[in-house]
Design a protein that fits this description.
heterodimer, A: alpha+beta, six-stranded antiparallel sheet, three-stranded antiparallel sheet, 9 strands, 19% helix, globular, B: alpha+beta, six-stranded mixed sheet
Chain lengths: 127, 376
């Protein structure tokens, strides 16, 4: 699966949508979902939590391993995807759609986060 | 510097099937082809095909082959009937488990010992050393065999369509030489998934034609290629130990709850075998002061215990054991673990047991192993 052009990407394999009224949606990339294998449990931050770019804010468990979920930007959590908590397989089946993880209101004062374009991310992952 | 991983005769085929590969005991092996959960379910309900060519085959031949194995291993292999197989172990002189093995008696003076890939060299070296003084030869046969397993309820029908061998007459833990899809193979009714199934030892050059024939024969029955990832969840549900997790040189068979594989009543070699004194002491110790016991743990929540995580008392957080294997169970739909726990907490239903999952104490139910048993 190719990486959607309109998204930006972290080196920790999260994707981030363009902000709408300051709020961006975050998920993990199909590259990361494939590498994890079947995701069986997700632990997400809670609405109202403040997250920091590059810091862990949750967990993704697959059959074989557990991985930290990192915040691609700093800001406040405005919404989490309850569907993916109930059915973690959405992370594998629809990483850019129904498998999104949380929405975050970007803290502008934290500065510009280091994110990659779709092409830069493809080069980074060797795809 | 590390050596490049070894590749099985089916390596190119795995890659053409889109397998995710992983390093396992120095071998580049298929981890999964698609979803490991789907592969797991296929083995439980239909059939799965595994490449196990990394396993280590060692052939022992000669008039005293049985006596040598009685001396070198903890089991009574000279008493094994031709055509049968046995689960056994090889221990250090001090009683620690060097490996768990399946031994096939192929003829009166011919046995095949199958070791775990990670221990094959250790087992080969130990058998070679222990063969001194016996009229028997130990041969490294790793290069001469590929190993393909077909496992699952549909496997007898699939294999039966490709062979004239008497599969109905082949008991569990037995093996007979035969021909499958015109390929010579040792057909063994063994496995590591908790299902009925067969393991086919064949020449490396015959592995790919055999794999393709099985794939074609199993197409309508829903057979799929399966990787090591689902093999691990299958064996965990079936409560089967894995070397490096439930078994190690730090444990004797009695500490691992597998004392029954140690046969003190052997009559060959005057009853002597490597590790006997240490194992007698271990048996006595286990009877007086029971060691930590291997139990099953079933999660109440969804967080997955992993090998090495502490088992703790829910009140107080005292460490009462350690997880040896853990995974989400596709069949039960819950995380499962095997763990060694203090005897006071080992009874099924013991309340107040938790696993420390990265700092949080998650409640777990103690259950008897195995978690899953197929309907016969």
């Amino acid at each position: 699966m190719s990486n959607p052009q309109q998204l930006r990407y972290s080196k920790e394999h999260e994707w981030l949508s363009a902000a709408e009224e300051g709020v961006s949606t975050v998920g993990i990339t199909s590259h990361a979902a494939d590498a994890l294998g079947d995701v069986v449990y997700v632990q997400l931050p809670e609405v109202g939590d403040t997250v920091t770019a590059g810091e862990p804010c949750g967990e993704l468990e697959s059959t074989k391993s557990v991985s930290d979920l990192y915040a691609p930007v700093s800001g406040e959590i405005t919404e989490v995807n309850q569907d993916v908590v109930d059915d973690p397989a959405l992370v594998n089946s629809a990483p850019y759609e129904g498998g999104w993880l949380f929405k975050v209101r970007t803290d502008e004062s934290a500065g510009e986060p280091e994110l990659l374009s779709a092409d830069e991310y493809a080069a980074f992952t060797g795809n | 510097m590390t050596d490049a991983p070894r590749r099985t005769p089916l390596d190119a085929l795995h890659r053409s099937l889109g397998a995710s590969m992983t390093d396992f005991a120095g071998w580049d092996m298929p981890l999964r082809y698609g979803s490991e959960r789907d592969e797991h379910t296929a083995v439980r309900t239909r059939a799965g095909l595994f490449d196990l060519s990394h396993m280590g085959e060692i052939t022992v031949t000669g008039p005293q082959a049985g006596e040598l194995l009685d001396h070198a291993l903890v089991g009574n292999l000279s008493a094994l009937a031709v055509g049968r197989a046995r689960y056994t172990m090889i221990c250090e002189p001090g009683g620690g488990i060097l490996d768990d093995l399946i031994v096939y008696r192929l003829a009166g003076e011919r046995y095949m010992v199958v070791a775990n890939a990670s221990n094959a060299q250790v087992v080969l070296d130990a058998l070679t050393e222990r063969a001194a003084g016996f009229d028997a030869a130990v041969a490294d046969d790793r290069e001469n065999y590929a190993l393909i397993a077909v496992q699952g309820p549909e496997s007898p029908g699939i294999l039966g369509s490709l062979t004239d061998a008497d599969l109905d007459g082949l008991k569990y833990y037995a093996g007979l030489p035969g021909t499958v899809a015109r390929v010579p193979a040792l057909i063994a009714r063994t496995g590591y998934t908790g299902e009925d199934g067969f393991e086919l030892f064949t020449a490396p050059d015959d592995a790919e034609p055999l794999w393709r024939a099985l794939t074609a024969a199993g197409k309508d029955a829903g057979l799929v290629p399966c990787g090591l990832s689902c093999r691990d969840t299958l064996r965990l549900e079936a409560g089967m130990p894995l070397y490096g997790h439930e078994l190690s040189t730090a444990l004797t068979p009695f500490d691992a709850g597998l004392g029954r594989v140690v046969k003190f009543d052997k009559t060959t070699n005057g009853g002597r075998f490597v590790g006997r004194e240490a194992l007698e002491a271990a048996a006595a110790r286990a009877a007086e002061a029971p060691p930590r016991k291997l139990v099953g743990l079933v999660a109440e929540g969804r967080r997955v215990p992993r090998a090495g995580y502490a088992v703790v008392a829910a009140d107080g957080g005292e460490v009462i054991g350690e997880v040896t294997s853990g995974a989400p169970s596709p069949t039960l739909g819950k995380p499962l673990a095997m763990a060694y726990v203090d005897p006071a907490y080992a009874a099924p239903g013991t309340p107040g047991v938790a696993v420390d999952i990265r700092g949080r104490h998650e409640p777990y139910e103690v259950v008897a192993l195995p978690f899953y048993k197929r309907q016969r």
